[in-house]
Design goal:
By secondary structure, the protein is mainly alpha-helical. The chain has one domain. Helix content is 70%, strand content 0%. The chain starts with a helix and ends in a 54-residue tail after the last helix.
Length: 409
């Protein structure tokens, strides 16, 4: 299997971009596991992301079924080129960063699938896409899994409150905090098992397209380790903007419902990963949180939930559009690959600078349920550090001159 220096440069560039996507996947989806325990205080924010990062790494090494589906099931790999895969990754990364900026928990998985589909359609033709595999492995699970997880979380939440209705809250809350920490850990493990494999599949597809690996084979050991480390580092970085939406924005989470939603999420994801479904962890986690809120009878912010669903519907076509446009540039040889990489870096910098205007960190992630981008985008909130609140006047108050009273004659 020979490969010239130019093609090797392109392969290395695309693998690096794939690992960058894996990193964005980690911080974009870290809220899926850890938003609940952070919101209730079951885990401290830094502890939560460290635990999530480690379990993401472990989960990524447990299975390769989803990776095999991506590398050998979605597309006719004989028609796929390395620049096409780069274009698909660009579409996925840009969509991930845009939704992260607005605090919308959209699907990193669907961003990846959409970006790749758009790039493959433009670069290799629609015939190279295996439509039925995408419908059966991606679209149908995207509809069924959140509903199943939501119903399971609703019934689990009702059962948890019913069982502990005569238990003093001080004892039940302590027990459920431990339970919530455990179920959140299981979700982080499941996320690594599901989403960590997607980048493995992409890198394997790159190696097959470059004739560096035989068609139909699974990911190599170094690919598994690299993908696991990248998603773990991304999870450690926090993804606090989406964590605020998931933990505070949709519904106020209590420890019993947090434990129930975590259990429903982890069971759904682990089962789907075993079957090789390209499931969205975000969809399942959000469905579970909504279901747990309904099960408790809590106030659900359906307006925000509807915005999230709208973002879900736009993810595949939106990332696909960016991936398709990127494929037009990536097809221009090495110059196109370099230009596309530079444009991606520029987009990342612009989005990052915009996010600094209203910074969210582990210190203020639970202060509000809103994620601000532009000061005029939403009405003022009530938390103390809101940068839109007017600063108090700094100067000394002016003295008002009063007329002197006339002395009596």
């Amino acid at each position: 299997m020979g490969i010239d220096v130019t093609e090797l440069f392109v392969v290395i560039t695309v693998i690096a971009v794939a690992l960058i996507f894996d990193f964005t996947n980690g911080f974009h989806d870290s809220a899926n596991a850890m938003a609940g325990p952070v919101a209730t205080g079951a885990l401290k924010p830094r502890t939560a992301v460290i635990l999530g990062a480690f379990l993401n790494l472990v989960g990524a090494c447990l299975s390769t079924e989803v990776a095999k589906t991506i590398s050998g099931g979605f597309f006719d790999d004989s028609l796929i080129t390395v620049p096409i895969i780069l274009a698909g990754l660009v579409g996925a990364i840009v969509w991930n960063l845009m939704t992260w900026l607005f605090g919308l928990p959209s699907s990193s998985s669907h961003a990846l699938f959409g970006g790749l589909i758009g790039a493959v359609v433009v670069g290799a033709g629609i015939a190279s896409v295996h439509g039925w595999v995408i419908v059966s492995k991606v679209l149908l699970p995207a509809i069924v899994a959140p509903l199943v997880a939501g119903m399971a979380a609703a019934w689990g939440t009702r059962l948890a409150y019913r069982i502990t209705r005569k238990t003093p809250s001080v004892h039940s809350n302590t027990g459920f905090k431990y339970g919530q920490a455990f179920t959140a850990s299981m979700v982080a493990l499941a996320h690594g098992t599901s989403d960590g494999q997607k980048t493995m599949g992409v890198i394997t597809l790159v190696l097959i397209a470059a004739n560096l690996q035989a068609s139909g084979t699974g990911p190599q050991l170094w690919v598994i380790i690299a993908a696991g480390i990248a998603i773990g580092l991304g999870t450690y970085s926090g993804g606090w903007r989406i964590m605020r939406t998931m933990g505070k924005g949709i519904v106020e989470i209590e420890t019993p419902q947090g434990a129930a939603s975590g259990a429903a999420t982890s069971a759904t994801i682990l089962a789907s990963a075993h079957l090789g479904f390209g499931l969205s962890t975000t969809h399942v986690s959000t469905g579970s949180i909504l279901g747990s809120g309904v099960g408790r009878g809590a106030k659900v912010r359906w307006r925000l939930a509807s915005r999230m669903v709208f973002a879900w519907l736009l993810t595949l076509p939106g990332a696909g559009l960016v991936g398709g446009l990127a494929a037009l540039l990536a097809d221009q040889g090495v110059f196109g690959v370099i230009a596309l990489t530079v444009l991606l870096a520029g987009a990342c910098v612009v989005i990052y600078v915009m996010s600094r205007r209203h910074k969210i960190t582990h210190a203020n992630v639970t202060d509000s349920h809103e994620v601000l981008v532009l000061a005029a985008a939403t009405p003022p909130t009530t938390y103390a550090d809101d940068p839109r609140l007017e600063a108090p006047p700094t100067g000394k108050p002016k003295k008002v001159k009063r007329p002197k009273a006339k002395s009596a004659a």
